[in-house]
Write a structure and sequence with these properties.
With 260 residues, the chain is an alpha+beta fold. It folds into two domains: 1-106, lambda repressor-like DNA-binding domains (434 Repressor (Amino-terminal Domain), Orthogonal Bundle); 112-257, Umud Fragment, subunit A (Ribbon). Helices cover 19% and strands 32% of the residues. The protein has seven helices and eleven strands. It has helices at residues 16-19, 26-33, 40-47, 53-58, 65-74, 79-88, 254-257, and strands spanning 112-121, 125-129, 132-136, 139-151, 163-166, 181-185, 195-203, 209-222, 226-231, 236-241, 245-251. The longest helix is centred in the N-terminal third of the chain and has 10 residues, at 65-74.
Length: 260
């Protein structure tokens, strides 16, 4: 499988006519985030990417976004942090200050109509694994409070059920860092390995329930009795009874957002 795109899109991540910005020199931009002392070959081995990746960039090839993001993560950044770097180097941010302009998923003519729901730092709870107690990070979630509207990538056109939220905490870094925006799909069922937002029910003394907290974790499996999730920091695999779960919504990966 090729790690460069085989369509007619030009190199450097964006099309000048579509994006309305100058093309990005992707090779030199990646070199600017390369950790000191890490060779190009060692970097690609860490990312599990073909050793010809950088040579292809030098020749003007346009990379597949999933491969590019593996290289970014291997350098110690999240994709969102890398896009911030792009913005700081002459590609201005979008008017709403969220996802950055000058990249394939961010066009100036895309509508600002994806609701960004309210999140805040929530209290941790204890999860037990093999008799060991580990703290699991959760966030307060206010679905009725739309704090902003963020740009709708063309890949999500017509998908009015999609919503966005802001990551709280660092339990899933380096995949998602605090402050990163994520797009969430309530309809598509997650498969093992997907990242999910699990909305939890809190019941009052009368048994009435409402959604006030959520977990952003990696989905492992679900049964009729529980859902099994994975947290990276501190690392733990744990279960939540389905009686406490209102919804399990799939986080849309960046590589599905950037191709349209």
């Amino acid at each position: 499988m090729s790690f460069f795109r085989e369509d007619d899109a030009p190199a450097h991540l964006c099309h000048k006519d579509d994006m309305r910005v100058e093309p990005i020199d992707l090779y030199n931009l990646l070199m600017s985030i390369k950790p000191e002392g890490l060779t190009e070959n060692a970097w690609l081995r860490r990312a599990d990417v073909n050793r010809n990746f950088f040579q292809g960039l030098k020749k003007g090839a346009n990379p597949r976004m999933d491969i590019l993001e593996k290289v970014i993560v291997a350098a110690g950044l999240t994709p969102a942090q890398f896009y911030d770097t792009v913005s700081e180097r002459g590609h201005p941010p979008a008017d709403d200050g969220s996802l950055k302009a000058g990249l394939p998923f961010q066009r100036r003519d895309e509508p600002l109509d994806v609701p960004l729901v309210g999140t805040a730092q929530g209290s941790d709870f204890e999860a037990e694994e093999d008799g060991k107690i580990t703290f699991v990070e959760r966030m307060d979630l206010d679905l009725e409070n739309v704090v902003d509207n963020v740009r709708r990538p063309a890949s999500l056109a017509g998908r009015t059920e999609v919503y966005a939220l802001t990551v709280v905490g660092n339990s899933m870094s380096d995949r998602y860092e605090e402050g990163d925006p994520v797009y969430v799909d309530p309809r598509r069922q997650p498969k093992p390995g997907d990242y999910v937002v699990v909305q939890l029910i809190k019941r009052d003394d009368l048994g009435e329930g409402r959604i006030v907290t959520a977990l952003l974790k990696q989905f492992r499996r679900k049964t009729s009795q529980f859902v099994e999730l994975y947290q990276k920091k501190p690392e733990v695999t744990f279960t939540i009874p389905m009686s406490e779960v209102a919804h399990i919504h799939r986080v849309i990966p960046w590589n599905e957002i950037v191709f349209f």
